[in-house]
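Input/output pair, single chain:
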Amino acid sequence: MANHRRIMELVLAGHSYTDIVENIRCSRRDVSAAKKTIASHQITPARLAVMTDADLRALFPDGRARVSGEYEQPEFRRVLQSMKSNQHFTLQQAWSRYVSRSGGGKKYGYSQYCHLFSEYLRTNDLVATMQHVPGRAMQVDWAGDTVDIVDPVTGEITKAFLFVAVLPYSGVVFCRAYLNQKSEAWLDAHAQAFTFFGGVVKMIIPDNPTTSTHQRRRGDRERVINARYQQLAEHYGCAIVPARPRKPRDKAAAENAVNVINKRVIGYLAEDMWTTLAEVNEAIDERVYEINRVLRRANGTTRWELFETEEAAELAPLPTDRFEDVVWKEVKVGRNYHLTCESQHYSVPFQHAGQLLRVRVTSQVITVFDGHDIICEHARLTGRKGQYSTLPEHQPAQHRDVDGLWSRKWFTARAASFGPATTDVIEQILDRHQVEAQGYLDCQNILGTLGRNNRARLEAACQELLNSRGYPTYTMLKRLMAGITTDRQKPREVTPAASTRKRVSTVTFTPTSDVYVRDASHYARDENGGQ
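Output:
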């Protein structure tokens, strides 16, 4: 819209059309209209100085206002509320409702509707600038994207969830991967974040997941902080102030940090294959180091430089002991003298098999109690579910030879219980393979199947096979065992093969001139029984 006040001032000052158009960037038509208005209303510089904007609008009516009066005006306030409450609500949907609504006026086209909505947002959807204080707050959240961890044994894929913490003043970011988003991981991530920053902020600003807040009663809008989360806050001497539900701007720094982690961490890690959580966290540390200490922002500083110079000194000191979330459980010990806790298996002395024991679970250690007495402790297992932690002193004597299952030592030790012939056969089977493990299945089939209830017969069959210098296989041994009628039958002794040379007589005869006498060798039977 032309600046009619300025045009009239230049006209009254005696400027030409060309000067006014170049200075005001208006059309010659606007200058002509201003001259006509001055002449018709006898406006002087003094009168123009006291005229208000409303007086000028009356002198220069906007034809577009008259045209817009013919159109039905959209309810942009309701459209904006719908878009904030429903992330899937689009402007196309709002315009369709506007067009289909019955009314007496004309309807705007879609392009004009979008233009008017953007003008409405420019003046009605304003955002305040929040000034952050050094060391005052830490905003936390879970990143939306995940990293895949592949089990090298089973090929099973497990998702790793990334916890993100940021100090809004300096923008320093902390990130750690966990296998779930449960309370235990949530609390451990906070403790590790405080250790990473080297101090404690005055308040924590989380979102409203079930690990941080909950409703007292179903349907009640009041939310209270979880007891375990409150214990962490009391341990570190800080407050927890959750963001308002559906108000992401309350923790805008966390939202921005999550976006940085998605691009600068997950975007890089997703291209590689990871097999353990420790590998993922080691790679995350490298990426976070680059984000905090290498990348420079628009003001030429890094996040860590601003943190060290202005924010680190404002943090409260860390407590002497790190916060440990403790969970107590009662677990029954199985017949294999192992108890199951958090989908992992831990051994106890075999004398406690079948008993109900108390287990204290922390992030690092599993402690087993019988009453008030500590039975044993295990380092807590993480990663793939179903892992075993077995201490040798917990095993009965007859189970200690199970160590080294499916190995040469294990198979030869089992074969020795059958006899020396079985041991020799098993060793021959293992030795004939270029890769020793390729013979494990044959050994297992022979010892576990043929020898299960026929130990003496298997030993006899192995002896027969060795005597005949045969090729040891499962089928050959099974055939030999079928020819042995009883388990009491002993393997025959090894005898040397019969000689194929004729026996030479040692008897000597004195020949005479009258009679020819054949020697004894002439009457001896040959090896085939003939003469």
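The radius of gyration is 46 Å. The mean pLDDT is 84.
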